[in-house]
Design brief:
Aspartate Aminotransferase, domain 2, Aspartate Aminotransferase, domain 1, seven-stranded mixed beta sheet
């Protein structure tokens, strides 16, 4: 089965894990700090804070920015549910924003403006598929309305500009991302106060960690904030340091595969829409999403592709249509998001693939559509 996404792990990662075991220090330590600094440098920021997941990072960064009860936060519905969950966990209210259209399934600036109220304090923009939204447009919007702007950069590791659009950004290292630590995330910001607050909150609000107390020979600590346990361990940081070295090269492979997909789809499946096909902005090429022609049975198409040895999936079931959110926020209607979500299919895209794999996927899709 040709998988939608696949981690790229090898001997270097194995040796890095063995080195952690041999060091006999497995909790948050020097490797975590080295990973933070390396990731920050790779993304043009001064510092970063490693956390246990992108979800944890979103939770912490909202609290660090002072978002809480009584506040409204603009969020896309076309995203993983964590993008909205973090708002509720902070005690704030998510306000769902539609996408631009089927060609650009990113949060609509026009709809975001229309949904601003005096209670709107923050907007979370998600870089769908790894394609960056306009820095100028979104920074201008946030400054005009006095909003905190947060990037959900789960899809955007390694792309130039990611982490430099909002006040803070959060990246994911889940197993299907462009680089992985199995679980894990990273918060980046040029605001030292915000990063210090995230760093404090990820470790129970304690003023020092175990390694710091060992190095300084100071056994005591204080708790100055109500924090969480969202730390990254040395195993994940060791893998992250290895993966980071290959990120630029892997993203280039993803770009080449995407270019080949676009050409082959235009040739063999001209009625299939490929989002961002004519986009000029930067991308990490995390997903290869296509929009099937209206009227096709998506379930049947995906079943035929599976029979041909091609895994597919959906990115994403809209958050506002999930059972919990329908109960909590009934009556939300986002026409463009719903149109896109009914017809979207995610095809395999990862650096282990070859051009022949792309040809097989597109040929199989063409046959599946013809029935």
């Amino acid at each position: 089965m040709l998988l939608v996404g696949e981690p790229n792990l090898g001997e270097d990662e194995k040796r890095a894990l063995i080195d952690v075991i041999d060091s006999n220090w497995i909790t948050m330590g020097d490797r975590v700090r080295a990973f933070e600094m390396g990731f920050a440098a790779a993304h043009g920021t001064t510092d970063a804070v490693a956390v246990s997941s992108c979800t944890a990072g979103l939770d912490l960064v909202l609290v660090a920015h002072g978002i809480g009860p009584g506040d409204e936060v603009l969020v896309p519905s076309l995203s993983f549910v964590a993008t909205a969950n973090c708002v509720l966990h902070a005690g704030a209210m998510p306000i769902f924003v539609d996408i631009d259209d089927l060609r650009y399934p990113i949060m609509s600036l026009g709809d975001a403006k229309a949904k601003c109220t005096p209670r709107t304090r923050c907007a979370i923009m998600m870089h769908y598929g790894g394609f960056l939204s306009s820095r100028t447009a979104w920074r201008g919007f946030a400054e005009h309305y006095g909003l905190v702007l947060i990037e959900d950069a789960a899809h955007a590791a390694g792309v130039n500009g990611a982490g430099n659009i909002g006040n803070s950004a959060v990246f994911s290292f889940y197993g299907n991302k462009n680089m992985t630590t199995a679980e894990g995330g990273m918060v980046v910001s040029d605001n030292r106060i915000i990063l210090d607050q995230v760093r404090l909150l990820r470790g129970h609000g304690m003023t020092s960690g175990t390694r710091q107390r060992l190095d300084t020979r100071t056994p005591t600590y204080d708790v100055t904030a109500l924090g969480w346990n969202c730390r990254m361990d040395e195993f994940r940081a060791a893998i992250g340091l290895v993966q980071l070295k290959s990120l630029t090269r892997w993203n280039a492979v993803r770009r080449d595969l995407t270019d080949h997909y676009r050409a082959k789809l235009q040739e063999k499946c001209p009625d299939v829409l490929v989002p961002f096909a004519d986009a000029s902005g930067a991308s990490a090429y995390h997903l290869l999403s296509v929009v099937l022609p209206e009227g096709l049975d998506r379930v049947e198409i995906m079943a035929r592709l599976r029979d041909a040895g091609v895994q597919t999936t959906i990115h994403y079931p809209p958050i506002h249509l999930m059972a919990y959110y329908q109960r909590r926020f009934p009556g939300v209607h986002l026409p463009q998001t719903e149109r896109f979500a009914r017809r979207e299919v995610t095809l395999p895209l990862h650096p282990k693939m070859h051009l022949e794999d792309v040809h097989h996927v597109v040929t199989s899709l063409a046959h599946a559509i013809r029935g």
